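Internal tracking record. Fields below are filled automatically when a chain is submitted to the structure queue. Please do not edit lines marked as system-generated. If the sequence contains nonstandard residues, flag them in the REMARKS field before resubmitting.
Queue: standard
Priority: normal
Entity type: single polypeptide chain
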Amino acid sequence: MPRPKCQRQIAGLPASTYFKPRGIPMSDLEEVILTIDEVEAIRLADHEGLYQEQAAEFMKISRQTFGRVIASAHRKIADALVTGKALRIEGGVVSFAQATKYRCASCDEKWSPPSGTGAPAICPSCGSSALGAHADIHHRHRKGRAGKNSRG
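SYSTEM-GENERATED OUTPUT FOLLOWS
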């Protein structure tokens, strides 16, 4: 019997939960199910550009587990795209991060918008639209690795 999955922390639910090829009726499509934690792994690594170690720390899982989660997500997305299947997002053992923080790429301002207001369109300090979600992660480097593959 496999051991139960630990909760994975996510910033929020995806805006859309279903994607399908255009022009094919849903009744004719096979589905691939992508879990919410797999979508969060894709967001952190591929969209936000975090390294696996940083993304794993944000999700409160090990780097090895993060590697398995993102590899599974990549396989499922590739299967849906290559074979013309629908992609449904649902399930997974997740908990929500306390508050989404945003960072302005222009002035490096960091803030959390009021709850329920959604993602901001512009920076409250400089008015720039170069914004991104900010995973409030403290970067740690082991001896001998400082500078190698490090960001921020």
